[in-house]
Design brief:
Length: 459
C-alpha cells in the first residue's frame, strides 16, 4: 500500500513533533511539551492524533516512532557501483533476517543487483557495477521503481512513503536538468524525468508515489548527520553540532555543509563541488616528502617513488595533457589525486586501484603515495575549517573510510594549518563504512520532500 493524502498531511502538520521523537528519548507527554515548547494539552493532542494514525506508539519505555509506519526505497548511482536499500520510518535499513515480510521484495531485486552481498551484520546490501551510460542509468532507475511499486501494490501490511534516487554531478533544480556530470558525460544536459521510462512514469502517477532525485554528496551528509543520533554511535556527543562539513572521496570528490543547523544550499543548490577546483599545489611540501623518504632508507617507499615516477609531482603539468579530467582541466583537484596518488590513466584503472580490498592495505604497501594522499586531504580540510569554522568534519566515501591507518591520523591532518584558533574546536571524525550510506541518505531526503521541507532542512 501507499501513503494516503490524509496521512501525508498529518506528517506535514506534526513534522516538528516527529523530528523530536526521532532524535530524542521522550519518556512522557510532559517532556515532549517541554522539548517542543508547547502546552501539555497541545502535546497530548498531538500524541493522540499520531498514535491513532499509528505513526507513533506509547509504552512503558516512553513515546516512540512506529518504525514500521512506512518505508522509503532508495538507490544511489555511483561511479563504481549502484547501491539500493529500504529504510524504515526511523531511517534505519531494513534487515530481511529480522523483517521477513521484505524478503520477497529483496529477492525481486537481486537480478537487477547481481553483486548483492551479505555484510557482517547479516544485512543484504543490494549493489551492481556501474556502466557509465544513459541507457544503464535509465534502466536501473526505471526497473528499481517498477519492482518497488509492484511489491507495495500487492501488500496491505507495509506502506511505501517514497522513492529516492541520488546522482553525481551538478543538477539544475530550477529546471530539473543534469547540468554537468564529469563522471557520466552521457548525462550532461539530460532532464531528470528522462531517467525514468514513460511506462514507469504512468505507474508513479497512478499510485501518486513520490520519486525524488538528490545530489550524492548531500545524501551522504544527511545519512552521516542522522547517524549521529543513533544511541550505539561513538560520536553521539556531536549530534547537535551546529556547523558540520562532510568530505566525500570515492569515485568523485565533493563536500556538503550544515551551517548554524541549516543545510547549506547556495544560490542554485550547487554547493561543495570541490573536486574540480583548480588550485595551486604545495610543491615544496611534496618535495620535502620525497627527500625525507630518500634520506630515511625506507626501501618500500623508495621503490614506490621510483616505480611510479612521482618526481613529476614537482612539475604539475608534466604528462597530464593526455589524462585530462572530463571537466576539461588538466589539473583539477580530483584529477590530481587520481594521477599523483593512484597513478591512474583512466576511470577503469582508478576504480580497480581504489576498490576496498586494495585500499585496506594502501598505507602499508604504498607509504609514499599514502603521504601524498594525506597532503591532499589536509589541504582540503584546512580550507574547509578555516573558511567555515566547523564544529566537526566527517570523512566519508570509500577512499577515506577503507584505508585502515587513516582513522588513527585524522586529527593530525589539520595540524599543518597556520591558523590554529579556528581548528582548535573542530573535530574530524570518520564516517560510516556502510557501502549503502548514500542510498540511505537519498531516502532521508525523500522524507524531507514528503513533509514539505524540500532541501530547506534544519535541525
Amino acid at each position: 500500500m501507499f501513503v494516503s493524502e490524509s496521512e501525508r498531511n498529518l506528517l506535514v502538520q506534526h513534522k516538528d513533533t516527529i523530528d523530536i521523537l526521532r532524535h530524542r528519548d521522550i519518556p512522557d507527554v510532559k517532556q515532549l511539551s517541554n522539548m517542543a515548547q508547547i502546552s501539555w494539552i497541545t502535546a497530548k493532542k498531538h500524541v493522540n492524533v499520531l498514535e491513532e494514525a499509528v505513526i507513533i506508539k506509547q509504552s512503558n519505555m516512553g513515546i516512540n516512532l512506529n518504525n514500521d509506519f512506512g518505508f522509503f526505497a532508495s538507490i544511489a548511482i555511483g561511479g563504481t557501483q549502484v547501491k539500493a536499500t529500504l529504510i524504515d520510518f526511523s531511517f534505519r535499513p531494513v534487515n530481511i533476517f529480522k523483517h521477513s515480510l521484505f524478503k520477497a521484495y529483496f529477492d525481486s531485486l537481486v537480478s537487477l543487483f547481481p553483486d548483492t552481498k551479505i555484510d557482517t551484520a547479516k544485512e543484504q546490501i543490494l549493489c551492481c557495477k556501474t556502466t557509465r551510460s544513459f541507457a544503464f542509468v535509465q534502466n536501473i532507475c526505471s526497473s528499481f521503481i517498477d519492482r518497488t511499486i509492484s511489491f507495495f501494490e500487492k501488500t496491505d501490511t507495509a506502506r511505501l512513503l517514497g522513492i529516492g534516487i541520488s546522482l553525481p554531478g551538478l543538477i539544475d533544480w530550477e529546471h530539473n536538468i543534469i547540468n554537468f556530470c564529469p563522471n557520466f558525460p552521457e548525462l550532461d544536459g539530460c532532464a531528470l524525468s528522462t531517467l525514468i521510462k514513460n511506462s514507469v512514469h504512468e505507474e508513479i502517477l497512478s499510485h501518486n508515489v513520490l520519486v525524488q532525485f538528490s545530489h550524492d554528496t548531500t545524501a551522504a551528509l544527511l545519512y552521516e548527520k542522522e547517524r549521529l543520533y543513533l544511541p550505539e554511535i561513538n560520536y553521539r556527543s556531536y549530534k547537535d553540532a551546529p556547523n558540520v562539513a562532510c568530505l566525500y572521496m570515492g569515485s568523485g570528490l565533493g563536500a556538503s555543509f550544515i551551517l548554524q543547523n541549516r543545510l547549506l544550499n547556495g544560490a542554485n543548490y550547487c554547493v561543495g563541488e570541490i573536486g574540480h577546483w583548480s588550485i595551486p599545489l604545495d610543491e615544496k611540501r611534496f618535495e620535502k616528502i620525497i627527500k625525507d623518504y630518500q634520506a630515511s632508507g625506507n626501501k618500500t617507499a623508495i621503490e614506490d617513488i621510483e616505480h611510479y615516477k612521482f618526481q613529476e609531482v614537482l612539475e604539475p603539468n608534466k604528462n597530464l595533457s593526455d589524462r585530462k579530467c572530463n571537466c576539461g582541466q588538466d589539473y583539477c583537484l580530483e584529477n590530481a589525486i587520481r594521477i599523483k596518488v593512484f597513478n591512474s590513466n583512466d576511470n577503469n584503472d582508478f576504480l580497480s586501484k581504489t576498490n576496498p580490498t586494495e585500499l585496506e592495505h594502501f598505507a602499508e604497501m604504498h607509504p609514499y603515495r599514502y603521504d601524498l594522499l594525506k597532503c591532499f586531504i589536509s589541504q582540503i580540510l584546512n580550507v574547509l575549517i578555516n573558511t567555515l569554522n566547523c564544529n566537526i568534519v566527517i570523512l566519508t566515501g570509500r577512499i577515506l573510510t577503507c584505508i585502515n591507518d587513516l582513522g588513527d591520523e585524522i586529527e593530525g591532518l589539520k595540524m599543518c594549518s597556520a591558523l590554529k584558533f579556528p581548528s582548535n574546536r573542530c573535530h574530524i571524525i570518520m564516517g560510516s563504512k556502510r557501502p549503502d550510506g548514500t542510498a540511505i541518505g537519498a531516502g532521508i531526503i525523500t522524507y524531507h520532500y514528503l513533509i514539505g521541507n524540500g532541501l530547506n532542512i534544519q535541525w
